[in-house]
Specification:
heterodimer, A: 137 residues, mainly beta, OB fold (Dihydrolipoamide Acetyltransferase, E2P), 3-stranded antiparallel β-sheet, 1 helix, 9 strands, globular, B: 399 residues, alpha/beta, Peroxisomal Thiolase, Chain A, domain 1, 9-stranded mixed β-sheet, two-stranded antiparallel ribbon, 11 helices
């Protein structure tokens, strides 16, 4: 079954190229140095119209803010159920990521649980950042 | 903002609501023309007097469906042409605060003198197949950041918000169920409702499977084909018309503040935007929450009722689920806050804010028959506080 894949554009291409190599990068504004996700045509932080985003590796460690288990989807090509987690990045707390929890839909999770970024290989040469549970402190 | 000079300067003077059907039996535009004509007649007016048209035509925010004016959407321009009207002013509201926002466009047009009588309508289409379905497998633009993970449409976003709410404050499925049961009870009393005569029990609700935890199908409104229309004019002109005028006392909209992925709503942002909107709403209306006799909260997804109760301060943050569990929104219980007494969206169908405004108008105009309440002020909300809006109405502007 073919899964939904991203269609990269000029702005997003470096993010998806890095993901394909299982490297997690985020866009950083050249004017104000703030990381943003997703990048936009202007910088969401300083609003410069010339953000000239560069993509820099970041740790990908975060904590679960909330989650949902998808048991019915409007999208084609997905095996259900699966769990999506809303992750606040430890090093960039203004950024919240949405990703699959690769531990599976039955995983026991709680708000505040630590996770780290992992990669979901959805097609040949295409990987999507996802998350895995880390041991609780 | 320097103060709401339009306070009580504009009134709703008539309305009409079509039947809410699961599937179209005629082109949506035809239903819109019929409903608009009925609203204009209800106001004691004729089409040639209507010189302003405002609306919003937002249609499924995700999915493969194309928008075709007159079939899947009905713009104000389309409606004016097909009514044979001679408009002086036509405007459409952009964005998700759509129905309350287009009421504000009408108010602005009337107070400025751009139009004398404004028809505002909302036409909702239910396309063949599933509402948000897509066969697309490659996602660009905003959706490249969410669809590959399987995040799509508003539902999983509300699942995330509701999980956070329930874990933070101890909310339960039973409490969510009481919202759905209450809305369906009230909708079952509306002859035009898709759910007319079809209330549900809490047991039935709790037996439903999850579709995006903790949301089941019964936490979501059902897509329908329907049109509602209202006629607005200035307070001065309203005095010469047959129905009791219902005045627009105040209005406010909310807007997103954080940079997020498409449809990724967070509980903290929603509540912060809601508190800010509440301040502007009370300032514009010259009232506070204690002055509102009849709040009507948007409920396309059941947890919106918690969000609006708390954001507008009708209870403390984290307390709405307990208020609901204790029967606090039961429309048949004296002293309650009957926030879905009109049946809302869960009890009538996916109508993007129409049922809330309809209930406010009809109650304040004294036009609901045996359901009539003794009320002077009402409040309708739409969408989420960080995208939507709220309108305060009164039938007694002197008080």
């Amino acid at each position: 079954m073919s899964r939904p894949v991203p269609l990269p554009d000029a702005l997003s291409a470096p993010y998806w190229e890095a993901a394909a190599r299982h490297q997690f990068v985020l866009a950083r504004c050249s004017a104000c140095d703030t990381f943003s996700h997703p990048p936009d045509v202007t910088c969401p932080a300083c609003h410069t119209p010339d953000p000239e985003f560069r993509f820099e590796p970041v740790s990908g460690r975060g904590t679960i803010r909330t989650w949902t288990v998808i048991r019915q989807s409007f999208l084609s090509g997905l095996e259900i159920p699966f769990m999506l987690v809303d992750v606040q990045l430890d090093d960039h707390p203004h950024i919240r990521m949405l990703g699959r929890l690769l531990d599976g839909p039955e995983a026991e999770v709680a708000i505040g649980d630590p996770v780290s970024v992992a990669f979901d290989d959805v097609a040949q040469g295409v990987a999507v950042p996802a998350f895995r549970l880390e041991p609780r402190a | 903002m320097t103060g709401y000079r339009a306070r009580n300067q504009v009134a709703i003077v008539g309305c009409a609501m079509s039947e809410a059907r699961r599937r179209p039996t005629e082109p949506l535009g035809v239903t819109a023309v019929r409903t608009a004509r009925a609203a204009i007649a209800d106001a004691g007016l004729t089409v040639d007097r209507i010189d302003g048209f405002t609306s919003t035509s937002l249609f499924p925010s995700s999915g493969d469906h194309a928008s075709v004016d007159g079939l899947s959407i009905v713009s104000s321009g389309w409606l004016a042409r097909h009514l044979g009207a001679k408009p002086a002013y036509i405007a459409g509201y952009e964005g998700m605060g759509s129905f309350t926002g287009s009421i504000q466009l009408a108010v602005n047009a009337l107070v400025s003198g751009s139009a004398d009588y404004v028809l505002i309508h909302r036409a909702l289409h239910n396309p063949a197949g599933k509402y948000h379905n897509t066969r697309t497998l490659e996602f660009g633009g905003d959706e490249q950041w969410i669809a590959p993970q399987g995040f799509y449409s508003a539902l999983p976003g509300l699942g995330l918000v509701t999980t956070e709410y329930n874990h933070r404050y101890g909310g339960t499925r039973e409490a969510m169920g009481r919202i759905a049961v209450e809305a369906r009870k009230n909708g079952a009393r509306n002859t035009w409702s898709h759910w007319y005569g079809k209330p549900i029990t809490l047991e039935h609700y709790l037996a439903q499977p999850m579709i995006s935890d903790p949301m089941s199908m019964l936490d979501c409104d059902i897509p329908v084909e329907a049109v509602g229309a209202f006629v607005l004019t200035t307070a001065e002109r309203a005095r010469d018309l047959p129905n009791r005028p219902v005045y627009i006392a105040g209005a406010a909209n909310g807007y997103p503040r954080d940079h997020r992925l498409k449809m990724h709503w967070t509980l903290d942002e929603i509540m912060a935007a809601g508190r800010d909107m509440a301040d502007r709403l009370w300032a514009s209306a010259g009232m506070g929450r204690g002055d509102i006799d009849l709040p009507q909260f948007y409920d396309a997804f059941s947890p919106f009722v918690y969000i609006w109760l708390e954001a507008l301060g009708f209870c403390g943050e984290g307390e709405a689920h307990a208020l609901v569990s204790d029967g606090g929104i039961d429309s048949d219980r004296p002293g309650s806050l009957p926030v879905v007494s009109g049946g809302g969206a869960l009890g009538n169908g996916r109508l993007h804010g129409l049922p809330q405004v309809l209930e406010c108008y009809r109650q304040l105009a004294g036009r609901v028959g045996e359901r009539q309440r003794q009320v002077e002020t009402a409040l309708a909300t739409y969408s989420s506080p960080h995208y939507g809006g709220a309108i305060v109405f009164t039938n007694n502007p002197a008080s």
